[in-house]
TrEMBL record:
This is N-acetyltransferase domain-containing protein. The lineage of its organism: unclassified sequences, metagenomes, ecological metagenomes. PANTHER family: ACETYLTRANSFERASE, N-ACETYLTRANSFERASE DOMAIN-CONTAINING PROTEIN. Residues 165-314 form the N-acetyltransferase domain. Signal peptide: none annotated. One of its GO terms (molecular function) is acyltransferase activity, transferring groups other than amino-acyl groups. The keyword Protein transport does not apply. InterPro entries: Acyl_CoA_acyltransferase, GNAT_dom, YpeA/RimI_acetyltransf. The keyword Nucleus does not apply. PROSITE patterns: GNAT. Keywords: Acyltransferase, Transferase. It comes from marine metagenome.
Length: 314
């Protein structure tokens, strides 16, 4: 495996130090968005994951106890790709860290028969942008991060549903299999979506910030037609909610069910007194952008996805 004086593989003994680094780098330390060590371990204990082989740390060469970056690779063989999730903190030699990580992605991909490597960066990140462009990566997608202030939604509209449709929290003990099928069908044609298994979805439901009560499903009689998966974080003083995923089965599209279930999810989060609701949307998904704008969401930042295609695979 690729290594330098400044990069080494992760071990579970590093967990507390890495969690602290991630919170400091994101500005989340001491806020409701601070990632706990238990949530970090859940993220890296998904079915099929192996953080000892798939995670790497960039160490400050002048202070071996200091972390400059962390990168986590997720292999998705069903769609022939690897995703590199990276965090690199601002420091004087940041370009060297991004370059080291870029070389690491190449070697990691070279050891696996998967065609695509994808990495997401902030649009305002000059070091990563230069590193990827110099390395021949191609920008393939842009996403927008949106936020809604619930204090601006005092006259927030109630949702309406066609006859025979209802909204209720997911019951995983009864509906997990059908819900898994719904999610895979709803996102089957979306860029970058890798089909989920029941085991994976069950694990995500059980994680901190999630929970079955925050997953609202639309039903026609007893058949699942769509859903809105929300997340919630609080430190006792501040709280934030996220619209994590919203999907409608292909056969039920065109009935305004997406608007209804997003509105229901937002009402659920507003009922928990969140200070803000956030989400991510594909910049090319104009209908979704228009929906969120009509519900009070405004853009706060943008990200870009870059792609490297393996030369070993035609």
């Amino acid at each position: 495996m690729y290594s330098t004086k400044s990069i080494r593989q992760f071990s579970w003994d590093d967990a507390a130090k890495v969690v602290r680094f991630l919170n400091e780098a994101s500005g989340s330390m001491g806020t409701e968005k601070e990632v706990s060590e238990s949530l970090f371990k859940d993220w890296h204990s998904m079915p099929g994951s192996n953080p000892i082989e798939d995670c790497f740390i960039s160490i400050d060469e002048t202070d071996k106890k200091s972390i400059n970056g962390f990168i986590h690779f997720i292999s998705e063989p069903t769609i022939d790709r690897i995703v590199a999730i990276q965090t690199v903190k601002p420091h004087t030699n940041r370009r060297k860290t991004t370059t080291d990580f870029e070389q690491l992605t190449r070697q990691y991909q070279g050891n696996r028969d998967l065609k695509f490597m994808h990495i997401q960066i902030a649009r305002s990140d000059p070091e990563w942008s230069r590193t990827l462009n110099d390395g021949g990566w191609i920008k393939v997608k842009e996403y927008m991060n949106l936020r809604c202030d619930p204090s601006d939604t005092l006259n927030f509209p109630e949702y309406s549903l066609p006859e025979k449709f209802s909204i209720a929290p997911l019951d995983p003990e009864i509906e997990l299999s059908e819900f898994t099928k719904l999610q895979n069908e709803a996102f089957g044609e979306h860029w970058g979506f890798s089909p989920n298994t029941e085991e994976e979805i069950s694990k995500r439901i059980s994680m901190e910030r999630s929970g079955e009560e925050g997953i609202l499903v639309i039903k026609e009689n007893n058949k699942l037609a769509g859903y809105n998966w929300t997340l919630f974080a609080s430190n006792g003083f501040e709280s934030t909610g996220w619209v994590s995923m919203t999907g409608v089965a292909p056969e039920f599209r065109g009935m305004r069910l997406g608007r209804a279930v997003v509105t229901a999810g937002m009402n659920y989060l507003i009922g928990k007194n969140v200070g803000a609701i956030e989400l991510e949307v594909d910049s090319e998904n104009v209908p979704a952008r228009q929906l969120y704008a009509s519900l009070g969401f405004k853009m706060i930042s943008e990200t870009e996805w870059y792609q490297l295609t393996s030369r070993k695979i035609s």
